[in-house]
Amino acid sequence: MRDDEATLHLLCGKIASGKSTLATALGGAPGRVVLDQDAWLFGLFGDRMKTIDDYIAFSERLRALIGPHVVRLLHAGVAVVLDFPANTPEDRTWMRSLIDASGARHLMHVLDVPTEVCWQRLQFRNAEGRHPFQASRVQFDAITRHFSVPKPEEGFDLVWHEGSDG
Q1: Neighbour-count burial for 130-157, b at 16+ CB within 10 Å, e otherwise
Q2: Does residue 45 surpass a pLDDT of 80?
Q3: Contact indicator for 149, 89 with CB cutoff of 8 Å
Q4: Residue 51's pLDDT is what?
Q5: Quick one: the chain helix, strand, coil %, rounded to 5?
Q6: Mean pLDDT of 2-8
Q7: What is the pLDDT of residue 136?
Q8: Structural domains in the chain?
Q9: How far apart are CA 5 and CA 9, in angstroms?
C-alpha cells in the first residue's frame, strides 16, 4: 500500500482514556476527516439517551447509517478518523467490515491507560460539563467490564499509545 492511500484510523481505549483527544490530533492532518460518534449521537438522539441500553441501541442505528458513508469516503481517497470505540470484539467486527468493504489501509490506535486514571479523567470531564454525555461510576464500571484490547487473530494493525498523564 502507498503512504498516500486513504487510511481508516480506529480507536480502542476505555472511557476517558483520550480517544477523542487523539482523534482530534489525528484529524488535524490534511486530507483527513474525523467522524465523532458522541457528537452524532448527541445531535441525533441526545434527549432520548438515558441508559447504557439506549446508548447501545442508538449506536447500532448510527453505525448502520455511517458505515456506508465511511466506505465511500475511503473509496474517494479521504482518510477517516473514526472516533467510535473499538472496545469490544463486536465493535471491532463492524469496523473490520468497513475495512473489508473499502479495501483501505487501517491503523487501530490502542490507548493503554490505567482504569483509575480514566476514572479520574472522567470525573474531571463530568465536572467541566463540556462533553455531551456524563457517566457515573456505576456506568463507568459497567462499560469498562466489557473493554478488551484486540487479539492478534482479529488481524488489526495496532499502534500502541501508553501513558497515564494527560
Answers
A1: eeeeebeeebbeebeeebebbeeebebe
A2: yes
A3: no
A4: 84
A5: 50, 20, 30
A6: 70
A7: 87
A8: 7-162 (3.40.50.300)
A9: 12
